[in-house]
Design brief:
This protein is mainly α. It contains 13 helices and no strands. The longest helix has about 35 residues. The C terminus is likely disordered.
Length: about 325
């Protein structure tokens, strides 16, 4: 394509579009129709230039012009409580449901790794000796030791807020690290499972595994599920770089990335619930069966939420991405 000829042919349309966008008075009906037509044409011109003769300066000018025209055509959209409701009842659960194969596989493999690490640490005294001195291990595992007092070492509200912040950061890291082919996500997962396996191993070697599980399960079921969802989504995002499917790699990555950002917000809410359980229920004086029951109910509620609401929304075509009107236009590339 001869870029100079293309520019000289279509520049009058671009100039006319810019003139309409600069109008301070209200456009007439005919001018509004003209604005829409010129916006669509200019967007197509931009797509042609990107694919045939990607001149940086011209692309920057037309990109800005198309963005201004899109804003004028669609209007400024303000978030509302309806958007929040839509996100919580359709977008977020649909995104979690769509990635279920990734995070369920991640959960099963990670749990197996934690169990194997716990068995290895619990049955090998030399491994325990490499972790800490015998006296320090006794302080960790004895009745009233650090494993037990950890959950009541701070005021419940402050502790819940701290736990929520730390877990939300871990989940966000898993989502963000997905763009690096998912490799850092595996490291974050392994460190989490190593920490869990160490607790299982040390407490089981002291004959107090039941106490440890009674402390971890109330909040850990929902907390770990949120981490597994984040990790699975991060791994899926990394795989999109390798295999974008039927879409161009940039488009596929943008779609999955926007869904991942939404999931980060949704998972922060899930982790808020698990942090509240860890801050108020885990260290409470409730019987162990009651604390574990609360954790199991929270976990079941989340799974029902994902599989019922999320499954329904996913089957209706919701992917967790933003609405079509808010995405970048993908228009034909024919002149």
């Amino acid at each position: 394509m001869d870029l100079d000829v293309f520019v000289s042919t279509h520049r009058p349309e671009w100039d006319r579009l810019e003139a309409l966008l600069r109008r301070r008075r209200r456009l007439t009906g005919a001018e509004a129709d003209e604005l829409v037509t010129l916006y669509q044409r200019t967007a197509t011109h931009l797509s042609v230039i990107r694919s045939s003769s990607p001149d940086p300066q011209l692309m920057a000018h037309l990109s800005q012009l198309v963005a201004r025209a899109r804003s004028a055509v669609t209007g400024t959209r303000r978030a509302s409580w309806r958007d929040v409701t839509q996100f919580l009842t359709y977008g977020f659960p649909a995104a979690v449901y769509r990635s279920r194969r990734w995070w369920i596989s991640t959960a099963l493999l990670s749990t197996l790794v934690a169990a194997l690490l716990g068995w290895w640490i619990g049955t090998h005294p030399e491994v325990q000796a490499s972790i800490a001195a015998p006296g320090e291990l006794r302080d960790l595992t004895r009745p009233g030791g650090e494993y037990e007092t950890y959950y009541s070492s701070h005021p419940a509200a402050a502790f819940a807020a701290q736990v929520w912040t730390n877990n939300a950061k871990a989940a966000a890291l898993c989502l963000v690290f997905g763009v690096f082919l998912g490799l850092p996500v595996l490291l974050v997962l392994f460190l989490n499972m190593l920490n869990l396996g160490m607790g299982i191993g040390l407490m089981s070697s002291a004959g107090r595994l039941d106490t440890f599980l009674g402390l971890v399960l109330p909040h850990g079921l929902l907390e770990l599920t949120a981490v597994f969802v984040a990790a699975g989504t991060g791994l899926r995002l990394g795989w999109t770089l390798i295999d974008p499917g039927p879409h161009p790699r940039r488009t596929a990555l943008a779609e999955e990335g926007r869904a991942a950002v939404g999931m980060a917000i949704g998972l922060a809410l899930v982790l808020f619930v698990s942090g509240a359980i860890e801050g108020f229920v885990t260290p409470s004086g409730l019987p162990t069966w009651a604390r574990i029951s609360i954790g199991v109910l929270a976990e079941l509620a989340f799974l029902v939420y994902v599989y019922v609401l999320g499954g329904r929304a996913a089957r209706a075509g919701d992917t967790g991405d933003v609405e079509a009107a808010e995405r970048s236009a993908t228009l034909p590339t024919a002149a």
